[in-house]
Amino acid sequence: MLEKYAVLVAYFGLLCLLGFIAARRVKGMKDFVTGNKSLSFWVAAFSAQATGESAWLLLGVTGMGAMVGFSAYWIVFGEVLGVFVAWFLMGKRFKRLTDRYASLTMTDFLVSRFGSSSSTLRILSAVSLIVFVLIYISAQIDATGSAFEAFLGWPYLRGALIGFGIVVLYCVAGGFLAAAWTDMFQGAVMLGCLVVLPVVAFIAIGDFSLIVSGLAAIDPGLVSPWGNGGATLYNLAAVLGMMLIGLGFLGSPQVFARLLSIKSEAEIDRGKWVAVGFTLLVDAAAVSVGVLGRYVFTTQGADPEAVLGNGAQNVMSQLVHVSFPPWIVGLYVAAVLSAIMSTVSSLLVMAASAVTHDLYAQFSSRQLSDRFAALLCRYATLAIALGAMALSITVAMLSPERTIFWFAIFGWSGIAATFCPMVILALFWSGFTERGAIAAMLGGFSMTMLSKFVLQDLPGVGPVFQALETMPPSFLFALLLGYVVSLAAPDERLKQRFLSECQSESVA
Q1: End-to-end CA distance of the chain
Q2: Residue-wise pLDDT tens digits, 123-182
Q3: Is the CB of residue 136 less than 8 Å from the CB of residue 411?
Q4: Which residues contact 116 (CB under 8 A, 6 or more apart)?
Q5: What one-character-per-residue DSSP string does 40-78 give?
Q6: Bridge partners of 39?
Q7: Is 469 left (phi over 0), alpha (psi -120 to 50) or beta?
Q8: What is the rounded (10 degree) CA torsion for 129, 389, 164, 259?
Q9: Any idea what DSSP says for residue 28?
Q10: Could you tell me which of 394, 185, 190, 393 has the C-alpha nearest to residue 285?
Q11: How far is CA 389 from CA 300, 329, 354, 395, in A?
Q12: Proportion of the chain in helix, strand, coil states, percent, rounded to 5
């Protein structure tokens, strides 16, 4: 046990060191929110992907691999496709426009893109972001407690408080730059640990055909790409839901903040290969950990959740404990915390930016000095962190059967459905209007809630919506609503302005 703690102390110490080094560079709002747009392609790519994956990857996706087997690899396909589109097709256009508008946040970009004369879009964007960020951060805090419980045997609440306290400390100190630098380090830890574990486990087993036959004996559905029962409507909906998780990379503010803050378009050209490669490796490894854990730890007729925990989210910790000595187990605790903290840090800074830059600074009559702006960002970060902690503890008490996979997916889906359709249309369609953007945002926000709490409980079709989850219907509804409203009330002046900007900047 001492070896595990030694590794964790060293890990936490390095994170705090990076945070306080970054803090010395924070002189004002721009430094805290974007790191003065100074990210290299390595930092931007690792930071974006580590932020996008979260504890959902190391605990949730590994658990999903154990629960459903080979069909979980559809998650890998969908995520790689989403990252490819974001970096290869959207990244440079987004970077050019945000530089042209001198945007510091996603809300800045949207307001400038439509030349907003009212505050409706700014307020709606900032408030929507804060709501779903709180939910998403709460899922990560929940995962922190579960990780300490599974790996070290700590009480859930103690683990959640200590792990979350560390990330709040370096975020409050160093802002966006601290989040990006620590994400780079944490992404490397995630990548190394995730890739090594299934390789070591596979070598110990030594025969792929033995794994396939063993899984088929446990449950034939584990080796089917469609799940148990074949290509039924329910299974097809589940496969589609897993594939479309990657939609969240197509404009989510926490991911695109890295593209906004990267040094140049040339860095995007370099970083896009790093981002796609990172995603392919870590996602495929996470599913493989779950599949191998199901083979190693369960038998025919056994309830996987009774052996591997709720949603099989303890499968990684169990496989680590039988594969490595204690000091390496400590490294894997650090890997899980890396996934959690990289996401929490980015979300905290983004939510604090929404409060301070998108709301307070825009509507306050007070002129903000650089020193006061940085201080305000830090206070906002702390306040949002405390709110997320309270929400996480409340959910843990009210819903003991929750799983990290679906808890995190709800927050991810809400952010994605609210922002991604709007960002896609704003980047690629000259006919998109401010009214259409507001409609798309409201549609994505409301359909996320409706899908989760109403459609999934409907008789007959409810199970299909449960399998599909909230992302696909919410995303599609927001996209269509933004398109229809823009067609119904066109804005020719805005269209011509956008076309002129595209032409002058060689965007189109």
Answers
A1: 58
A2: 888 888 888 878 877 877 777 777 777 777 778 778 777 777 776 765 555 555 656 666
A3: yes
A4: 110, 122, 434
A5: -HHHHHHHHHHHHH-HIIIIIIHHHHHHHGGGGHHHHHH
A6: 262
A7: left
A8: 0
A9: S
A10: 190
A11: 39, 27, 19, 10
A12: 85, 0, 15
The chain-wide mean pLDDT, for the chain, equals 83
Residues 33/314, Cβ–Cβ less than 8 Å? no
Using alpha carbons, select from 346, 312, 474, 454 the residue that is nearest to residue 409. 474
Query: Which amino acid is located at 66 in the chain?
Result: A
Check residue 300 and report its DSSP letter: T
pLDDT tens digits along 286-330: 999 999 999 999 999 889 999 998 888 889 989 998 888 877 887
CA distances from 236 to 224, 231, 334, 467 (A): 12, 6, 36, 9
Q: What is the DSSP letter of 262?
A: B
Single out the residue of 403, 396, 226, 410 nearest to residue 308, CA to CA: 403
H helix or E strand, kind and range, residue 437 = helix 434-453
Cβ 121 vs Cβ 111: under 8 Å: yes
Phi, psi dihedrals of residue 317, rounded to the nearest 5°: -65, -40
Tell which residue, 327, 317, 281, has the closest CA to residue 296: 317
Which tokens hold the place of 52? Answer: 């996008």
